[in-house]
Amino acid sequence: MTGGIFILSGAGLSAESGLKTFRAEDGLWEDHRVEDVATPEAFARDPELVQTFYNMRRAQAAEAEPNAAHQALARLQAAHDAPVYLVTQNVDDLLERGGARDVIHMHGALKDALCATCDHRWSAPMAMDVKDPCPSCGAPATRPDIVWFGEIPYHMDTIQEALEDSDLFVSIGTSGVVYPAAGFGQMARQLGIRTMELNLEASGGRFDEVREGLASTVVPQWVDEVLSR
Asked: CATH number of the domain that 81 lies in?
C-alpha cells in the first residue's frame, strides 16, 4: 500500500452549495421523475425535455459556489504526501473550482457535450439543443455528456487502479444505492482497505468508521486530522 486515499463523493458534497441531492424523498429529481430525464429511453422519447432539464442543471451549477468541503478536499490533495484520488458521482465542477485537480467524473460532466452519433465530445454551451450540429460529423444529435441509467460509467479501469493503490476508502455524501459506485466499499474491504463514511446520516453500509454531519463541517474536520498526523 502507498498510503493513498480514495475518496468517492456524491450529491451530499454539493448540497450545501445549493444543488439538490439526486434522491429526494418524493422520488423526484429537480421536480422530474428520473425515468423521464436520465435514461437513453427518455432522450429518445423526448429529447427536448431532457435538454431543457440539463440546461437548467447546467445554469444552476454555474451559479453555485464551492463550499468548505470542496475546498478541504482540494487542500488535502495538495498537501498530503501520498496520492489522493477524487472520484465523484457528481456532474458539477465544484471540486475543480474549489482547487482540486484530476477529478475523475464517473458519471460525466455538465460542462461537456456528446454526439449521440459519433461519440465526439466538446465543451457544452450554457444552453444546448438536440438539433445543434456535432462539430465533428455534423449530425444533429447533441446530448449532454452524462452517464444515464442503463449506461456504463466512465473511467472504471482508472478507478480500479486508484482503489488498489490506496489504503483508505472514504465515502462522502453518497447514498450508496447507485451501482457500480455503491460496490466500491465492498471492493475496498475485499482488498483489505480501511473504510470510512462522512455523511449527513449514516447510509447503513458497512464501514470501519462513520461520521455524521454536514459535509462543510465533517469533511474539513477530518482533513485537518489527516494533515496534522
From this structure: 3.40.50.1220
* Cα-based distances in Å from 49 to 56, 137, 172, 206: 11, 24, 31, 38
**pTM for the predicted model, two decimal places:** 0.92
Residue 73, helix vs strand vs coil: helix
The answer to whether 181 and 172 are in contact (CB under 8 A) is: no
List pLDDT tens digits, range 40-51. 999 999 999 999
Using CA atoms, how far apart are residues 114 and 132, in angstroms rounded to an integer?
11
Q: Does the annotation mark 107 as catalytic?
A: yes
pLDDT digits (tens, 9 = 90+) for 109-141: 999 999 999 999 999 999 999 889 999 999 998
119 and 210, same domain (yes or no): no
- If one counts the domains in the chain, the total is 2
Choice among 80, 107, 120, 155 that is catalytic: 107
**Other Cβ atoms closer than 10 A to 99:** 15
φ/ψ bin of 30: left (φ > 0), alpha (ψ from -120 to 50), beta (otherwise): left
For residues 9 and 112, state if they share a domain.
no
- Of 64, 67, 73, nearest to 172 by C-alpha is 73
Residues 120 and 11 in one domain: no
CA distances from 5 to 14, 70, 163, 179, 215 (A): 20, 16, 8, 21, 18
Omega before 40 cis (within 30°)? no
pLDDT at 229: 86
Residue 54: CB atoms within 10 Å: 24
Do the beta carbons of residue 69 and residue 16 sit within 8 Å? yes
